[in-house]
Amino acid sequence: MQLTGDRFTQETAAFGNDLVTLPNFPAEIRAPQGTLPGVSSFQVHFADHDILTAGDAPDVLVAMNPAALRANLGDLHKGATIIVDTHDFTARNLTKAGYQDNPLEGDSLDAYALHTVDLTGMTVEAVKEFGLSRKDASRAKNMFALGLLSWMYGRPTDPTTSFLAKRFAKVPDIRDANVAAFKAGWNFGETTEAFAVQYEIKPAVMPPGTYRNITGNLALAYGLVAGSVQSGLPLFLGTYPITPASDILHELSKHKSFGVTTFQAEDEIAGVGAAIGASYAGHLGVTSTSGPGVALKSEAIGLAVMTELPLVVVDVQRGGPSTGLPTKTEQADLLQAMFGRNGEAPVPIVAPQSPGDCFAAAVEAARIAVTYRTPVLLLSDGYLANGSEPWRVPTVDELPVIDPAFATEKNHGSGDEAEFWPYLRDEATLARPWAIPGTPGLEHRIGGLEKGDGHGNISYDPANHDFMVRTRQAKVDRIADTIPLIEVDDPSGEAKVLVIGWGSTYGPIGAGVRRVRKAGYHVAQAHLRHLNPFPSNLGEVLKGYDKVLVPEMNLGQLSLLLRGKYLVDAVGYNHVRGLPLKATELAHAIGELVGQAEGIDIELGVWGEPTQKEHI
Known about the structure:
- By secondary structure, the protein is α/β, with parallel strands linked by helices.
- It is built from 20 helices and 21 strands.
- Strands 8-7-9-10-12-11-17 form a 7-stranded mixed beta sheet, sandwiched between helices. A 5-stranded mixed beta sheet has the order 14-16-15-18-19, sandwiched between helices. The chain has a 3-stranded parallel beta sheet with strand order 3-4-5, covered by helices on one side.
- It starts with a helix and ends with a strand.
- This is 2-oxoacid:acceptor oxidoreductase subunit alpha.
- Keywords: Oxidoreductase.
- Residues 236-450 form the Pyruvate flavodoxin/ferredoxin oxidoreductase pyrimidine binding domain.
Protein backbone atom coordinates (compact mmCIF):
# COMPACT_ATOMS: atom_id res chain seq x y z
CA MET A 1 0.00 0.00 0.00
CA GLN A 2 2.92 2.37 0.69
CA LEU A 3 4.34 1.64 -2.77
CA THR A 4 0.92 2.15 -4.36
CA GLY A 5 0.38 5.45 -2.58
CA ASP A 6 3.87 6.62 -3.43
CA ARG A 7 3.34 5.87 -7.13
CA PHE A 8 -0.02 7.69 -7.21
CA THR A 9 1.69 10.62 -5.49
CA GLN A 10 4.50 10.70 -8.04
CA GLU A 11 1.97 10.60 -10.89
CA THR A 12 0.07 13.47 -9.28
CA ALA A 13 3.21 15.52 -8.75
CA ALA A 14 4.26 14.94 -12.36
CA PHE A 15 0.84 16.18 -13.48
CA GLY A 16 1.33 19.42 -11.54
CA ASN A 17 -1.28 19.21 -8.78
CA ASP A 18 -0.60 20.47 -5.29
CA LEU A 19 -0.67 17.57 -2.83
CA VAL A 20 -0.11 16.46 0.75
CA THR A 21 0.24 12.84 1.83
CA LEU A 22 -0.24 10.83 5.02
CA PRO A 23 1.44 7.40 5.03
CA ASN A 24 0.22 5.33 7.98
CA PHE A 25 1.66 1.91 8.70
CA PRO A 26 2.31 -0.48 11.60
CA ALA A 27 5.57 -0.58 13.53
CA GLU A 28 6.05 -4.32 13.05
CA ILE A 29 8.29 -5.46 10.21
CA ARG A 30 5.68 -8.05 9.25
CA ALA A 31 2.44 -7.01 10.92
CA PRO A 32 -0.27 -9.69 11.32
CA GLN A 33 -2.00 -9.79 7.92
CA GLY A 34 -5.74 -9.34 7.90
CA THR A 35 -5.96 -7.84 11.41
CA LEU A 36 -6.80 -4.25 12.32
CA PRO A 37 -3.32 -3.54 13.79
CA GLY A 38 -1.78 -4.85 10.57
CA VAL A 39 -3.54 -2.39 8.25
CA SER A 40 -1.22 -0.19 6.19
CA SER A 41 -2.75 2.88 4.54
CA PHE A 42 -1.64 5.78 2.40
CA GLN A 43 -3.80 8.90 2.16
CA VAL A 44 -3.22 11.55 -0.50
CA HIS A 45 -5.02 14.88 -0.91
CA PHE A 46 -4.51 16.66 -4.21
CA ALA A 47 -6.09 19.67 -5.89
CA ASP A 48 -5.81 22.39 -8.53
CA HIS A 49 -5.12 24.95 -5.79
CA ASP A 50 -2.97 25.37 -2.70
CA ILE A 51 -3.77 22.80 0.00
CA LEU A 52 -2.33 22.35 3.48
CA THR A 53 -3.33 18.93 4.83
CA ALA A 54 -3.78 15.33 3.75
CA GLY A 55 -7.52 15.79 4.31
CA ASP A 56 -9.83 14.90 7.17
CA ALA A 57 -12.28 12.62 5.35
CA PRO A 58 -11.24 10.76 2.17
CA ASP A 59 -13.55 10.81 -0.85
CA VAL A 60 -12.36 7.39 -2.04
CA LEU A 61 -11.30 4.32 -0.06
CA VAL A 62 -9.71 1.30 -1.73
CA ALA A 63 -9.99 -1.60 0.73
CA MET A 64 -8.01 -4.72 -0.11
CA ASN A 65 -9.49 -6.81 2.74
CA PRO A 66 -12.08 -6.63 5.55
CA ALA A 67 -9.58 -5.23 8.06
CA ALA A 68 -8.77 -2.31 5.75
CA LEU A 69 -12.47 -1.53 5.39
CA ARG A 70 -13.17 -1.71 9.11
CA ALA A 71 -10.08 0.32 10.10
CA ASN A 72 -10.80 3.19 7.71
CA LEU A 73 -14.57 3.30 7.31
CA GLY A 74 -15.00 5.70 10.22
CA ASP A 75 -12.87 8.33 8.46
CA LEU A 76 -15.15 8.53 5.41
CA HIS A 77 -17.97 11.00 4.90
CA LYS A 78 -21.37 9.79 3.77
CA GLY A 79 -21.49 9.43 0.00
CA ALA A 80 -17.80 8.57 -0.31
CA THR A 81 -16.73 5.98 -2.85
CA ILE A 82 -15.56 2.59 -1.58
CA ILE A 83 -13.78 0.15 -3.88
CA VAL A 84 -13.46 -3.31 -2.32
CA ASP A 85 -11.46 -6.33 -3.43
CA THR A 86 -14.06 -9.03 -2.89
CA HIS A 87 -11.53 -11.84 -3.20
CA ASP A 88 -10.29 -11.49 0.38
CA PHE A 89 -13.72 -11.18 2.01
CA THR A 90 -13.60 -14.78 3.19
CA ALA A 91 -15.10 -16.07 6.44
CA ARG A 92 -11.64 -16.34 7.98
CA ASN A 93 -10.64 -12.80 7.06
CA LEU A 94 -14.00 -11.41 8.20
CA THR A 95 -13.51 -13.04 11.60
CA LYS A 96 -9.94 -11.70 11.91
CA ALA A 97 -11.26 -8.21 11.23
CA GLY A 98 -14.01 -8.53 13.84
CA TYR A 99 -16.98 -8.86 11.48
CA GLN A 100 -19.76 -11.31 12.34
CA ASP A 101 -21.44 -10.84 8.97
CA ASN A 102 -20.14 -9.81 5.58
CA PRO A 103 -20.70 -6.01 5.34
CA LEU A 104 -20.83 -6.24 1.55
CA GLU A 105 -24.03 -8.27 1.72
CA GLY A 106 -26.14 -6.20 4.12
CA ASP A 107 -27.28 -2.58 4.14
CA SER A 108 -24.56 -1.21 6.44
CA LEU A 109 -22.76 0.44 3.52
CA ASP A 110 -25.82 1.89 1.81
CA ALA A 111 -24.71 5.43 2.69
CA TYR A 112 -21.65 5.02 0.46
CA ALA A 113 -21.04 4.50 -3.24
CA LEU A 114 -19.87 0.88 -2.98
CA HIS A 115 -18.04 -0.87 -5.82
CA THR A 116 -17.29 -4.55 -5.32
CA VAL A 117 -14.53 -5.67 -7.66
CA ASP A 118 -12.58 -8.92 -7.80
CA LEU A 119 -9.24 -7.11 -8.06
CA THR A 120 -7.24 -10.24 -7.25
CA GLY A 121 -9.07 -12.45 -9.75
CA MET A 122 -8.76 -9.95 -12.59
CA THR A 123 -5.09 -9.38 -11.76
CA VAL A 124 -4.32 -13.11 -11.87
CA GLU A 125 -6.10 -13.36 -15.22
CA ALA A 126 -4.25 -10.33 -16.61
CA VAL A 127 -0.78 -11.71 -15.78
CA LYS A 128 -1.28 -15.44 -16.43
CA GLU A 129 0.86 -15.31 -19.58
CA PHE A 130 3.96 -14.68 -17.46
CA GLY A 131 3.80 -18.07 -15.75
CA LEU A 132 3.79 -16.82 -12.17
CA SER A 133 2.32 -18.78 -9.30
CA ARG A 134 -1.10 -17.62 -8.18
CA LYS A 135 0.44 -16.19 -5.00
CA ASP A 136 3.02 -14.17 -6.93
CA ALA A 137 0.49 -13.11 -9.52
CA SER A 138 -1.96 -11.86 -6.89
CA ARG A 139 0.72 -9.60 -5.43
CA ALA A 140 0.33 -7.36 -8.47
CA LYS A 141 -3.23 -6.44 -7.44
CA ASN A 142 -1.98 -3.17 -5.95
CA MET A 143 -0.82 -2.17 -9.44
CA PHE A 144 -4.24 -3.11 -10.84
CA ALA A 145 -5.85 -0.84 -8.24
CA LEU A 146 -3.35 1.91 -9.05
CA GLY A 147 -4.19 1.64 -12.74
CA LEU A 148 -7.91 1.92 -11.98
CA LEU A 149 -7.42 5.03 -9.82
CA SER A 150 -5.04 6.52 -12.37
CA TRP A 151 -7.83 6.23 -14.93
CA MET A 152 -10.46 7.67 -12.56
CA TYR A 153 -8.38 10.79 -11.90
CA GLY A 154 -6.60 11.23 -15.22
CA ARG A 155 -3.13 10.56 -13.83
CA PRO A 156 -0.20 10.17 -16.28
CA THR A 157 0.89 6.54 -16.60
CA ASP A 158 4.43 6.93 -17.94
CA PRO A 159 6.02 7.66 -14.51
CA THR A 160 4.71 4.38 -13.10
CA THR A 161 5.58 2.16 -16.08
CA SER A 162 9.08 3.66 -16.13
CA PHE A 163 9.41 3.08 -12.38
CA LEU A 164 8.34 -0.55 -12.66
CA ALA A 165 10.72 -1.16 -15.56
CA LYS A 166 13.60 0.18 -13.48
CA ARG A 167 12.54 -1.33 -10.13
CA PHE A 168 12.21 -4.90 -11.50
CA ALA A 169 14.74 -4.72 -14.34
CA LYS A 170 16.53 -7.86 -13.07
CA VAL A 171 13.31 -9.94 -12.88
CA PRO A 172 11.58 -9.51 -16.26
CA ASP A 173 8.57 -11.68 -15.40
CA ILE A 174 7.77 -9.64 -12.27
CA ARG A 175 8.36 -6.41 -14.18
CA ASP A 176 6.10 -7.37 -17.05
CA ALA A 177 3.41 -8.74 -14.74
CA ASN A 178 3.23 -5.52 -12.74
CA VAL A 179 3.10 -3.40 -15.88
CA ALA A 180 0.39 -5.66 -17.29
CA ALA A 181 -1.64 -5.44 -14.07
CA PHE A 182 -1.29 -1.65 -14.04
CA LYS A 183 -2.50 -1.37 -17.65
CA ALA A 184 -5.30 -3.87 -16.98
CA GLY A 185 -6.57 -1.68 -14.14
CA TRP A 186 -6.54 1.35 -16.40
CA ASN A 187 -8.37 -0.55 -19.15
CA PHE A 188 -10.93 -1.88 -16.68
CA GLY A 189 -11.79 1.66 -15.66
CA GLU A 190 -11.99 2.70 -19.32
CA THR A 191 -14.31 -0.13 -20.38
CA THR A 192 -16.48 -0.98 -17.37
CA GLU A 193 -19.78 0.76 -16.77
CA ALA A 194 -19.40 0.46 -13.01
CA PHE A 195 -17.51 3.76 -12.80
CA ALA A 196 -19.61 6.29 -14.65
CA VAL A 197 -17.56 9.31 -13.64
CA GLN A 198 -13.99 10.19 -14.48
CA TYR A 199 -12.55 13.21 -12.65
CA GLU A 200 -10.34 15.93 -14.06
CA ILE A 201 -8.21 17.91 -11.61
CA LYS A 202 -6.24 20.58 -13.41
CA PRO A 203 -2.65 21.48 -12.44
CA ALA A 204 -2.28 23.95 -9.58
CA VAL A 205 -1.03 27.47 -10.15
CA MET A 206 2.34 27.76 -8.40
CA PRO A 207 5.14 30.31 -8.36
CA PRO A 208 7.57 29.74 -11.25
CA GLY A 209 10.53 27.48 -10.62
CA THR A 210 11.76 23.91 -10.77
CA TYR A 211 9.62 21.58 -8.64
CA ARG A 212 9.93 18.03 -7.39
CA ASN A 213 7.95 15.91 -4.99
CA ILE A 214 9.83 15.48 -1.73
CA THR A 215 9.41 13.89 1.69
CA GLY A 216 10.47 15.62 4.89
CA ASN A 217 13.37 13.27 5.62
CA LEU A 218 14.73 13.64 2.10
CA ALA A 219 14.41 17.44 2.24
CA LEU A 220 16.11 17.49 5.62
CA ALA A 221 19.02 15.42 4.32
CA TYR A 222 19.40 17.76 1.34
CA GLY A 223 19.28 20.74 3.71
CA LEU A 224 22.13 19.33 5.78
CA VAL A 225 24.20 18.86 2.62
CA ALA A 226 23.39 22.43 1.58
CA GLY A 227 24.44 23.70 5.03
CA SER A 228 27.70 21.80 4.65
CA VAL A 229 28.39 23.25 1.21
CA GLN A 230 27.44 26.81 2.20
CA SER A 231 29.72 26.68 5.23
CA GLY A 232 32.58 24.93 3.45
CA LEU A 233 32.60 22.29 6.19
CA PRO A 234 32.62 18.54 5.49
CA LEU A 235 29.44 16.95 6.83
CA PHE A 236 29.76 14.14 9.37
CA LEU A 237 26.66 12.20 10.45
CA GLY A 238 27.14 10.06 13.55
CA THR A 239 23.90 8.20 14.15
CA TYR A 240 22.07 5.04 15.12
CA PRO A 241 19.04 3.79 13.11
CA ILE A 242 15.68 4.61 14.66
CA THR A 243 12.19 5.03 13.24
CA PRO A 244 11.23 7.49 11.77
CA ALA A 245 14.66 9.12 11.34
CA SER A 246 16.58 6.31 9.61
CA ASP A 247 15.92 7.60 6.09
CA ILE A 248 18.20 10.57 6.83
CA LEU A 249 21.12 8.16 7.28
CA HIS A 250 20.09 6.21 4.18
CA GLU A 251 20.03 9.35 2.04
CA LEU A 252 23.17 11.03 3.35
CA SER A 253 25.16 7.82 2.80
CA LYS A 254 24.61 8.35 -0.95
CA HIS A 255 26.37 11.73 -1.06
CA LYS A 256 30.05 11.07 -0.54
CA SER A 257 30.67 13.27 -3.58
CA PHE A 258 29.67 16.25 -1.43
CA GLY A 259 32.20 15.33 1.26
CA VAL A 260 29.59 13.60 3.44
CA THR A 261 30.77 10.95 5.89
CA THR A 262 28.14 8.74 7.54
CA PHE A 263 28.91 6.62 10.59
CA GLN A 264 26.38 4.06 11.82
CA ALA A 265 27.39 3.73 15.45
CA GLU A 266 26.70 0.85 17.83
CA ASP A 267 24.30 2.99 19.88
CA GLU A 268 22.84 6.49 20.23
CA ILE A 269 25.52 7.71 22.64
CA ALA A 270 28.36 6.66 20.37
CA GLY A 271 26.68 8.39 17.44
CA VAL A 272 26.47 11.78 19.12
CA GLY A 273 29.92 11.39 20.66
CA ALA A 274 31.43 10.82 17.22
CA ALA A 275 29.55 13.85 15.85
CA ILE A 276 30.96 16.06 18.63
CA GLY A 277 34.43 14.75 17.85
CA ALA A 278 33.91 15.62 14.19
CA SER A 279 32.88 19.16 15.14
CA TYR A 280 35.97 19.50 17.31
CA ALA A 281 38.02 18.54 14.25
CA GLY A 282 36.40 21.22 12.10
CA HIS A 283 33.50 19.35 10.48
CA LEU A 284 29.77 20.05 10.59
CA GLY A 285 28.80 17.42 13.16
CA VAL A 286 25.25 16.05 12.91
CA THR A 287 23.38 13.32 14.74
CA SER A 288 19.85 12.13 13.89
CA THR A 289 17.38 10.29 16.09
CA SER A 290 13.89 10.30 17.58
CA GLY A 291 12.67 11.03 21.11
CA PRO A 292 14.16 7.96 22.85
CA GLY A 293 17.52 8.72 21.26
CA VAL A 294 17.46 12.34 22.43
CA ALA A 295 17.06 11.03 25.98
CA LEU A 296 20.17 8.88 25.56
CA LYS A 297 22.13 11.70 23.92
CA SER A 298 21.27 14.30 26.56
CA GLU A 299 24.56 14.08 28.50
CA ALA A 300 26.60 14.41 25.31
CA ILE A 301 24.50 17.38 24.17
CA GLY A 302 25.36 19.01 27.50
CA LEU A 303 29.02 18.36 26.69
CA ALA A 304 28.57 20.22 23.38
CA VAL A 305 26.96 23.09 25.31
CA MET A 306 29.94 23.25 27.69
CA THR A 307 32.60 22.92 24.99
CA GLU A 308 30.61 25.32 22.76
CA LEU A 309 31.03 23.33 19.58
CA PRO A 310 28.65 23.34 16.59
CA LEU A 311 26.34 20.33 16.52
CA VAL A 312 23.01 19.70 14.78
CA VAL A 313 20.76 17.25 16.61
CA VAL A 314 17.84 16.09 14.45
CA ASP A 315 14.86 14.77 16.43
CA VAL A 316 12.17 13.25 14.20
CA GLN A 317 9.51 13.02 16.89
CA ARG A 318 7.25 10.01 17.27
CA GLY A 319 4.58 8.81 19.69
CA GLY A 320 5.86 8.15 23.20
CA PRO A 321 6.81 7.73 25.97
CA SER A 322 9.38 4.90 25.83
CA THR A 323 9.05 2.90 22.62
CA GLY A 324 5.51 4.25 22.32
CA LEU A 325 4.19 4.43 18.76
CA PRO A 326 7.31 4.22 16.57
CA THR A 327 5.56 4.79 13.23
CA LYS A 328 3.05 7.41 14.40
CA THR A 329 3.51 11.16 14.72
CA GLU A 330 3.64 13.41 17.77
CA GLN A 331 5.28 16.68 18.82
CA ALA A 332 5.77 16.00 22.51
CA ASP A 333 9.56 16.44 22.69
CA LEU A 334 9.54 20.24 22.92
CA LEU A 335 10.10 20.42 26.67
CA GLN A 336 12.74 17.68 26.43
CA ALA A 337 14.51 19.80 23.81
CA MET A 338 14.24 22.88 26.02
CA PHE A 339 15.18 21.41 29.39
CA GLY A 340 16.21 17.76 28.96
CA ARG A 341 19.78 18.13 30.21
CA ASN A 342 21.38 18.50 33.63
CA GLY A 343 22.38 21.99 34.69
CA GLU A 344 21.66 25.19 32.82
CA ALA A 345 22.29 23.94 29.28
CA PRO A 346 20.40 26.19 26.83
CA VAL A 347 20.04 24.88 23.27
CA PRO A 348 18.48 26.68 20.28
CA ILE A 349 15.45 24.92 18.77
CA VAL A 350 14.26 25.08 15.15
CA ALA A 351 11.12 23.37 13.80
CA PRO A 352 10.03 22.97 10.13
CA GLN A 353 6.38 23.40 9.22
CA SER A 354 6.03 21.13 6.16
CA PRO A 355 7.96 18.36 4.37
CA GLY A 356 9.58 20.81 1.95
CA ASP A 357 10.34 23.27 4.73
CA CYS A 358 12.58 20.63 6.35
CA PHE A 359 15.23 21.72 3.83
CA ALA A 360 15.25 25.38 4.91
CA ALA A 361 15.03 24.43 8.59
CA ALA A 362 18.10 22.19 8.26
CA VAL A 363 20.08 24.98 6.59
CA GLU A 364 18.99 27.36 9.36
CA ALA A 365 20.02 24.87 12.07
CA ALA A 366 23.45 24.57 10.47
CA ARG A 367 23.75 28.37 10.27
CA ILE A 368 22.96 28.83 13.94
CA ALA A 369 25.20 25.97 15.06
CA VAL A 370 28.23 27.21 13.14
CA THR A 371 27.74 30.93 13.75
CA TYR A 372 27.05 30.68 17.48
CA ARG A 373 29.16 27.60 18.33
CA THR A 374 26.30 25.69 19.89
CA PRO A 375 24.34 22.48 19.52
CA VAL A 376 20.97 23.07 17.82
CA LEU A 377 17.92 20.81 18.12
CA LEU A 378 15.94 20.43 14.92
CA LEU A 379 12.44 19.15 15.73
CA SER A 380 10.76 17.38 12.82
CA ASP A 381 8.14 14.64 13.31
CA GLY A 382 6.84 11.47 11.72
CA TYR A 383 4.11 13.27 9.75
CA LEU A 384 6.65 15.58 8.11
CA ALA A 385 9.30 12.87 7.73
CA ASN A 386 7.13 10.43 5.76
CA GLY A 387 4.68 12.89 4.21
CA SER A 388 5.40 14.60 0.91
CA GLU A 389 4.53 17.71 -1.07
CA PRO A 390 5.70 19.58 -4.20
CA TRP A 391 8.84 21.55 -3.36
CA ARG A 392 10.39 24.36 -5.34
CA VAL A 393 14.11 23.69 -5.61
CA PRO A 394 15.91 26.85 -4.42
CA THR A 395 18.73 28.42 -6.36
CA VAL A 396 22.17 28.56 -4.76
CA ASP A 397 22.04 32.35 -4.42
CA GLU A 398 18.93 31.98 -2.25
CA LEU A 399 20.91 30.07 0.38
CA PRO A 400 22.74 31.86 3.19
CA VAL A 401 26.53 31.97 3.28
CA ILE A 402 27.70 30.41 6.54
CA ASP A 403 31.14 31.53 7.70
CA PRO A 404 32.86 29.20 10.22
CA ALA A 405 35.55 31.89 10.77
CA PHE A 406 38.10 29.46 12.14
CA ALA A 407 40.68 30.89 14.52
CA THR A 408 44.04 31.17 12.76
CA GLU A 409 46.20 33.16 15.19
CA LYS A 410 46.72 33.90 18.85
CA ASN A 411 44.18 36.32 20.27
CA HIS A 412 45.39 37.40 23.72
CA GLY A 413 48.45 39.41 24.61
CA SER A 414 51.22 40.37 22.23
CA GLY A 415 54.76 39.45 21.27
CA ASP A 416 56.31 36.55 23.13
CA GLU A 417 53.52 36.74 25.71
CA ALA A 418 50.74 36.16 23.11
CA GLU A 419 48.44 33.21 23.81
CA PHE A 420 45.37 31.60 22.33
CA TRP A 421 42.36 31.97 24.60
CA PRO A 422 39.56 29.62 23.42
CA TYR A 423 36.80 31.32 25.43
CA LEU A 424 37.14 34.92 24.33
CA ARG A 425 33.86 36.15 22.86
CA ASP A 426 32.76 37.70 19.59
CA GLU A 427 31.10 40.96 20.61
CA ALA A 428 28.06 40.47 18.36
CA THR A 429 27.32 36.78 18.81
CA LEU A 430 29.18 35.90 22.05
CA ALA A 431 30.54 32.89 20.14
CA ARG A 432 33.96 31.61 21.15
CA PRO A 433 36.79 31.03 18.63
CA TRP A 434 36.81 27.68 16.82
CA ALA A 435 40.35 26.39 16.41
CA ILE A 436 41.01 23.27 14.36
CA PRO A 437 43.25 20.83 16.29
CA GLY A 438 46.80 20.87 14.98
CA THR A 439 46.86 24.59 14.20
CA PRO A 440 50.29 25.70 15.48
CA GLY A 441 50.08 27.86 18.58
CA LEU A 442 46.36 27.36 19.11
CA GLU A 443 46.55 24.39 21.45
CA HIS A 444 43.83 24.53 24.12
CA ARG A 445 42.02 22.44 26.70
CA ILE A 446 38.55 21.11 26.06
CA GLY A 447 36.12 18.94 28.04
CA GLY A 448 33.08 18.90 30.24
CA LEU A 449 34.47 20.63 33.33
CA GLU A 450 33.60 24.30 33.81
CA LYS A 451 35.82 26.69 31.90
CA GLY A 452 37.45 29.83 33.18
CA ASP A 453 36.21 32.91 31.34
CA GLY A 454 38.47 33.69 28.42
CA HIS A 455 41.42 31.41 29.05
CA GLY A 456 39.29 28.25 29.22
CA ASN A 457 41.26 26.49 31.91
CA ILE A 458 39.32 24.43 34.46
CA SER A 459 37.68 26.63 37.06
CA TYR A 460 35.73 25.82 40.22
CA ASP A 461 35.30 29.46 41.21
CA PRO A 462 31.64 30.17 42.16
CA ALA A 463 31.55 33.62 40.61
CA ASN A 464 33.10 32.35 37.36
CA HIS A 465 30.54 29.54 37.13
CA ASP A 466 27.67 32.00 37.60
CA PHE A 467 29.17 34.25 34.93
CA MET A 468 29.72 31.42 32.42
CA VAL A 469 26.19 30.05 32.94
CA ARG A 470 24.74 33.49 32.23
CA THR A 471 27.05 33.99 29.26
CA ARG A 472 26.02 30.71 27.61
CA GLN A 473 22.38 31.70 28.05
CA ALA A 474 23.05 35.19 26.70
CA LYS A 475 24.71 33.66 23.64
CA VAL A 476 21.55 31.70 22.82
CA ASP A 477 19.44 34.80 23.48
CA ARG A 478 21.58 36.73 20.96
CA ILE A 479 20.35 34.41 18.21
CA ALA A 480 17.11 36.41 18.25
CA ASP A 481 19.10 39.26 16.63
CA THR A 482 19.55 37.25 13.42
CA ILE A 483 16.19 35.49 13.06
CA PRO A 484 13.12 37.06 11.43
CA LEU A 485 10.37 38.69 13.44
CA ILE A 486 7.26 36.54 13.65
CA GLU A 487 4.75 37.42 10.94
CA VAL A 488 1.03 37.50 11.66
CA ASP A 489 -1.52 36.61 8.98
CA ASP A 490 -4.45 38.88 9.90
CA PRO A 491 -5.99 40.05 6.58
CA SER A 492 -8.80 42.16 8.06
CA GLY A 493 -6.83 43.53 11.00
CA GLU A 494 -10.00 43.05 13.07
CA ALA A 495 -9.26 39.65 14.60
CA LYS A 496 -9.49 39.27 18.36
CA VAL A 497 -8.24 35.67 18.32
CA LEU A 498 -4.72 34.56 17.37
CA VAL A 499 -4.02 30.90 16.53
CA ILE A 500 -0.31 30.15 16.97
CA GLY A 501 1.48 26.87 16.44
CA TRP A 502 4.78 25.22 15.64
CA GLY A 503 6.02 22.35 13.52
CA SER A 504 3.65 20.19 11.50
CA THR A 505 0.49 21.75 12.96
CA TYR A 506 0.98 24.51 10.34
CA GLY A 507 -1.16 22.66 7.78
CA PRO A 508 -4.17 21.83 9.99
CA ILE A 509 -4.06 25.30 11.59
CA GLY A 510 -3.99 26.99 8.19
CA ALA A 511 -6.85 24.84 6.89
CA GLY A 512 -8.92 25.44 10.03
CA VAL A 513 -8.32 29.20 9.88
CA ARG A 514 -9.36 29.24 6.21
CA ARG A 515 -12.68 27.59 7.05
CA VAL A 516 -13.46 30.08 9.80
CA ARG A 517 -12.59 33.02 7.54
CA LYS A 518 -14.64 31.56 4.69
CA ALA A 519 -17.58 31.51 7.09
CA GLY A 520 -17.19 35.27 7.49
CA TYR A 521 -15.32 35.58 10.79
CA HIS A 522 -12.03 37.21 11.73
CA VAL A 523 -9.09 35.19 13.03
CA ALA A 524 -5.31 35.70 12.92
CA GLN A 525 -2.63 33.06 12.44
CA ALA A 526 1.08 32.94 13.30
CA HIS A 527 3.58 30.10 13.22
CA LEU A 528 6.86 29.64 15.04
CA ARG A 529 9.96 28.25 13.39
CA HIS A 530 12.32 29.34 16.18
CA LEU A 531 11.28 28.02 19.59
CA ASN A 532 14.43 28.96 21.48
CA PRO A 533 14.96 31.80 21.42
CA PHE A 534 11.55 33.07 20.41
CA PRO A 535 11.38 35.91 17.87
CA SER A 536 11.97 39.21 19.63
CA ASN A 537 8.51 40.61 18.81
CA LEU A 538 6.53 37.56 19.97
CA GLY A 539 5.49 39.04 23.32
CA GLU A 540 4.16 42.17 21.67
CA VAL A 541 2.21 40.12 19.11
CA LEU A 542 0.62 37.87 21.76
CA LYS A 543 -0.54 40.83 23.84
CA GLY A 544 -2.23 42.35 20.79
CA TYR A 545 -5.05 39.76 20.86
CA ASP A 546 -7.83 39.05 23.33
CA LYS A 547 -7.44 35.28 23.10
CA VAL A 548 -4.62 33.00 21.97
CA LEU A 549 -5.23 29.41 20.84
CA VAL A 550 -2.28 26.99 20.70
CA PRO A 551 -3.00 23.72 18.82
CA GLU A 552 -0.43 20.99 19.51
CA MET A 553 0.00 17.22 19.24
CA ASN A 554 0.91 17.08 22.92
CA LEU A 555 -0.73 18.09 26.19
CA GLY A 556 0.22 21.76 26.01
CA GLN A 557 3.99 22.20 25.90
CA LEU A 558 4.20 25.39 23.82
CA SER A 559 1.22 26.74 25.79
CA LEU A 560 3.24 26.25 28.98
CA LEU A 561 6.25 28.10 27.55
CA LEU A 562 4.15 31.02 26.28
CA ARG A 563 2.29 31.31 29.56
CA GLY A 564 5.51 31.22 31.57
CA LYS A 565 7.48 33.69 29.47
CA TYR A 566 4.82 36.17 28.37
CA LEU A 567 2.09 35.76 31.03
CA VAL A 568 -0.63 35.34 28.39
CA ASP A 569 -3.69 33.18 28.95
CA ALA A 570 -2.88 30.75 26.13
CA VAL A 571 -5.66 28.23 25.48
CA GLY A 572 -4.48 24.78 24.43
CA TYR A 573 -6.08 22.61 21.76
CA ASN A 574 -4.47 19.23 22.29
CA HIS A 575 -4.81 15.79 20.74
CA VAL A 576 -2.25 12.98 21.06
CA ARG A 577 -3.63 10.35 18.70
CA GLY A 578 -0.50 9.54 16.70
CA LEU A 579 -2.14 11.30 13.75
CA PRO A 580 -2.18 14.91 12.52
CA LEU A 581 -4.82 17.27 13.87
CA LYS A 582 -8.06 17.35 11.88
CA ALA A 583 -8.79 20.71 10.26
CA THR A 584 -12.58 20.40 10.66
CA GLU A 585 -12.38 19.76 14.41
CA LEU A 586 -9.85 22.55 14.79
CA ALA A 587 -12.06 24.96 12.86
CA HIS A 588 -14.84 24.37 15.39
CA ALA A 589 -12.46 25.04 18.28
CA ILE A 590 -11.31 28.26 16.61
CA GLY A 591 -14.89 29.27 15.96
CA GLU A 592 -15.83 28.69 19.59
CA LEU A 593 -13.01 30.94 20.78
CA VAL A 594 -13.90 33.62 18.20
CA GLY A 595 -17.48 33.49 19.47
CA GLN A 596 -16.32 34.01 23.05
CA ALA A 597 -14.09 36.91 22.07
CA GLU A 598 -16.76 38.65 19.98
CA GLY A 599 -19.79 37.82 22.09
CA ILE A 600 -21.60 35.74 19.48
CA ASP A 601 -22.53 32.10 19.02
CA ILE A 602 -20.83 30.53 16.03
CA GLU A 603 -21.83 27.22 14.51
CA LEU A 604 -19.79 26.10 11.53
CA GLY A 605 -21.77 22.94 10.81
CA VAL A 606 -20.28 19.53 10.10
CA TRP A 607 -18.20 20.70 7.14
CA GLY A 608 -17.58 24.28 8.21
CA GLU A 609 -20.72 25.85 6.69
CA PRO A 610 -21.55 29.07 8.56
CA THR A 611 -24.54 29.68 10.80
CA GLN A 612 -24.69 32.49 13.34
CA LYS A 613 -26.91 33.43 16.28
CA GLU A 614 -26.54 36.87 17.82
CA HIS A 615 -26.81 37.18 21.60
CA ILE A 616 -29.94 39.12 22.49
